[in-house]
Amino acid sequence: MTTYSRRAFLAGAAAAFTLPKGAIAQTAPRMHVFKDPNCGCCSAWIAILEQDGFRITTEARTSAALVEEKVRRGIPASMASCHTADMDGYVIEGHVPAADIRKLLAERPDAIGLAVPGMPYGSPGMGPEHQREAYDVHLIRRDGTTEVFTRYKAAA
Predict the structure, then answer these.
(1) What is the CATH number of the domain that holds 33?
(2) Would residue 20 count as lying in a domain?
(3) pTM for this prediction
């Protein structure tokens, strides 16, 4: 009969329930971001999403080319922000929090995607959350109409 120490048993159990390194990378949400190469807030937003487990690639665009990307994807001018991303059949416009992106992917509404218009202070990549101003994340419907997807109150 083989006997195992507690340490060996726990190490074996942990190994049995651990995903292979490649499996984690394959299940992480993938996103492709179009952005100005010199924009620090876009890079900060990307870093926040990467820390949350997203796999992101980027593509540099001039201001005019970014506007063309937004128009081509059906983003209303009133919903525009500084960067545009493609993700799993949706468009993510601006500083959308990771939790809202995950909710979109879980619910899969018939929509173009999500947008945080402008660059509200305290949204991801735009300054500290504990000092944020109130802002809304909008769902952009295929007919161009929008509705509030999530509302963020100003920090106290």
Answers:
(1) 3.40.30
(2) no
(3) 0.81
Closest alpha carbon to 125 in 69, 53, 50, 42 = 42
Tokens 């996103």 found at = 31
User: For tokens 């005019």, what's the residue?
Assistant: 64
Residue 41: inside a domain = yes
State which residues form the domain around 55: 29-152
pLDDT tens track for 62-119 = 999 999 999 999 999 999 999 999 999 999 999 999 999 999 999 999 999 999 999 9
For residue 36, count other CB atoms closer than 10 A to its CB: 17
For residue 92, give Cα distances in angstroms to 16, 98, 115, 141, 152. Answer: 37, 10, 6, 13, 17
